[in-house]
Specification:
2 domains; Diaminopimelate Epimerase, Chain A, domain 1; 11 strands; 19% strand; 49% helix; inorganic pyrophosphatase (n-terminal core); alpha/beta; 6-stranded mixed β-sheet; binds manganese (II) ion
Length: 320
């Protein structure tokens, strides 16, 4: 088998990243590599010549990853499409090395990708990007807002949310690959085998979880937090904590070796940028973190967890 001419490395854990990969499969017959932040460096390292084009989608380009991408610009055309807040200077360096960078923190990556390749992809592919906008909670982005006017709003919303609920329920390679393949054929998610069932299962788990969180989470001034139970996603639990506890911010963590992996979610309409605050507090404690306005994450030394909770809560409280 000859090596693929076009490769897409995309975030494989949610609808936004998978949709980016699917649209590139459709448009460029790209070979998709679905990855996460733990495997991303290895995924990029595996990319060797000969290659015509590389797309990196829905992935925050950190300093150490930029080096790998710069290496690849030496032998292939590179396009980065992302919406995560990025350390200043990194994207500029990629551009100087000849990479194309499509970056805007206001829209999801699928919508940015669709907007960039609108002509080639065509109107029906835009519907898939619109699903991703709902699933990724970027339906109010400037491009997404206009795009959503083009299609039946409620069916697009429902299809997008089917993906949002089904994907965390079936975190397997096989399921993600079948969703990717279906989107690349522009099939609405409700027709993809297993998607509606997984979504309903997830909703049931969510309802049960909200009922039990009330007794488990601990409340500080602005945030409430808890340790994750086995097998739950810290991101979704963090979001549900704000629901169950009525707090502005929810935090859920897992201990992995001597590290604490932390996920945070805030309600809409709050004045602060959760990603910025998370980054600052995590960095001060010898870890790293960051993310979006209402969703962020951090990885810090486990022994600093108590301190992290206190400092973060204080930083949030002084904003109010
Ligand atoms: Mn995204």
């Amino acid at each position: 088998m000859s090596p693929p001419a076009v490769v897409c490395v995309s975030h494989g854990e949610d609808a936004d990243g998978i949709t980016c990969a699917a649209l590139l499969v459709r448009m460029k017959a790209a070979h998709p590599i679905l990855t996460n932040y733990d495997d991303l460096k290895d995924s990029l390292r595996s990319i060797q010549p000969p290659l015509d084009e590389l797309y990196v989608c829905d992935l925050n380009v950190r300093e150490d990853l930029a080096e790998e991408i710069l290496r690849i610009t030496g032998f292939a055309r590179v396009t980065v499409i992302d919406h995560h807040p990025t350390t200043p200077g990194i994207l500029e360096r990629l551009k100087e090395a000849g990479a194309e960078v499509v970056h805007d923190t206001r829209d999801c990556a699928s919508v940015l990708l669709y907007d960039r390749f609108r002509e080639e992809l065509g109107r029906e592919a835009g519907r898939m990007a619109a699903f991703a906008a709902w699933a990724d909670q970027f339906e109010d982005g400037p491009i997404a807002e206009a795009l959503l006017l083009e299609y039946d709003r409620q069916s697009v919303q429902h299809e997008g949310l089917l993906l949002a609920h089904a994907l965390p329920q079936r975190p397997t390679k096989e399921f993600r690959a079948s969703v990717l393949e279906a989107i690349s054929r522009l099939e609405p998610p409700h027709r993809t085998p297993g998607v509606p069932e997984a979504a309903i299962e997830h909703l049931e788990e969510t309802a049960t979880l909200i009922e039990t969180l009330t007794g488990k989470a601990k409340r500080l001034q602005v945030l409430a937090y808890m340790k994750a139970d086995e097998g739950t996603s810290i991101g979704s639990v963090a979001g549900l904590i704000t629901d169950a506890m009525g707090t502005q911010v929810g935090l859920c963590y897992k201990l992995k070796g001597d590290l604490a992996n932390i996920s945070l979610r805030s309600r809409r309409g709050l004045p602060y940028h959760l990603g910025e605050i998370t980054r600052r507090v995590a960095k001060g404690l010898g870890g790293f973190g960051g993310g979006h306005k209402r969703a962020s994450g951090a990885s810090i030394p486990g022994e600093s967890l108590e301190k992290f909770l206190g400092e973060l809560d204080k930083a949030l409280a002084t904003y109010n």
